[in-house]
Amino acid sequence: MTARETALTEAEIQQRLQDGLSHWRYENGWIRRTYRTASWKATLMVINTVGHLAEAAWHHPDITASYAWVEVRLQTHTAKGITEKDFALARMIEQVVQWQPGKDGGPLEGTPSGDQRFAYVKYDT
Predict the structure, then answer these.
(1) 72: nearest Cα among 81, 57, 88, 60
(2) Rounded-to-integer distance, Cα 87 and Cα 110, Å
(3) Is residue 38 within 8 Å of 121, Cβ to Cβ?
């Protein structure tokens, strides 16, 4: 087992969650994050995004979804706990799903605000 697959202690997990993953929580052996969405279309977009990132990383989460939310749960099964791999994937998911192009000043303006037809993730403020 490599260092990246060594299970972290609960204190180490809590510290890593405080250091940049404040919307994630540790519960029942998993780190978890619920993303609120504006519609079923947005829910599917989040699921597909998480799926793409997980497959590219070859580290696969459990996902539960409903009309306006997606819960992502991460754990390294081979380590029987939370490892650096879980935190690396959580950070990547967070970076992509929470990206708001209209706020970065670049040429990508993001989805139109105020028009429910284009609503996506309910971004954290």
Answers:
(1) 60
(2) 27
(3) yes
Residue with tokens 């403020």: 125
Residue 1 has pLDDT above 60, yes or no: no
What tokens were used for 102? 């209209």
Q: Which residues pair with 63 in a beta bridge?
A: 72
Do residues 88 and 2 make contact, with C-beta atoms less than 8 angstroms apart? no
Position 93, amino acid = I
**pLDDT classification of 121: cutoffs 50, 70, 90:** confident
Q: How many CB atoms lie within 10 A of CB 110?
A: 15
| 24 half-sphere exposure, CB direction, 13 A CA radius | 30
The neighbour count for residue 97, using CB atoms within 10 Å, is 21
- Residue for token pair 């972290």: 8
Cα–Cα dist 58/84, whole Å: 14
| pLDDT at residue 105 is higher than 90 | no
Rg (CA), the chain: 15
